[in-house]
Amino acid sequence: MTACCGEKTVFRSLDFEVRLLPATCKMPTEWSNGLCGCLSDIPLCLTTYCAPCYTFGKTAEAVGDDCLMCGIITFVPLVNLWFATQIRGKIREQKGIDGSFVSDLLLNCCCPLCTLVQDAQEVGVKAPFGNSMARS
């Protein structure tokens, strides 16, 4: 096993070893919800299905882009794919999630609504209605 970010081995035995990581070392993380995890937030899922422009605009706003502009871009073919891929890349960069531009583009082409919901859940976007609905 190779050392990363200047980590130091403090204990080693035949079965395991203990390593200390410096505070500046960022380990890659995963998405907090899976690609098909949109049903964990039914109001957001319904909002995205009926009005993807709302979800896309709010997600873009959460990463520092203009909500209205990105909401309108949702209706422009091909340009919407480019912007959705850029927004997903910003989310990955902010959260330290592994991935690439190509994988983001393929996900936006093949599963656009699921990808949009996953992005929105990652940055904490809520639906404009039904936030008090609890799943049992």
Number of beta-strand segments: 2
Order of helices and strands: EEHHHHHH
Helical coverage, percent range: 40-55%
* Main sheet strand line-up: 1-2
Gyration radius over CA = 19 Å
Structural class call reads mainly alpha
The N- and C-terminal alpha carbons lie at a distance of: 43 Å
The outline comes out as: globular
Please describe the biggest sheet, giving its number of strands, its sense, and whether it closes into a barrel.
2 strands, antiparallel
Unreliable parts: none
Number of helices: 6
Which band does the percent of strand residues land in?
Answer: 5-15%
Would you tell me the overall average pLDDT? 84
Account of the 3D structure:
- It is built from six helices and two strands.
- Helix 5 (101-110) crosses helix 6 (112-123).
- The relative contact order is 0.18.
- It has a domain at 37-123.
- The chain starts with 7 loop residues before the first strand and ends in a 13-residue tail after the last helix.
- The mean pLDDT is 84.
- The chain has 136 residues and is mainly alpha-helical.
- Helix content is 49%, strand content 7%.
- It has helices spanning 42-50, 52-62, 67-73, 79-95, 101-110, 112-123, and strands at 8-12, 17-20.
How do you describe this structure in short?
The chain has 136 residues and is mainly alpha-helical. Helix content is 49%, strand content 7%.
Any descriptors?
about 140 residues; mainly alpha; two-stranded antiparallel sheet; 2 strands; globular
Fold topology:
Layout (H helix, E strand, L loop, with lengths): L7 E5 L4 E4 L21 H9 L1 H11 L4 H7 L5 H17 L5 H10 L1 H12 L13
Antiparallel strand pairs: 1-2
Helix pairs in contact: 1-2, 1-6, 2-3, 2-6, 4-5, 4-6, 5-6
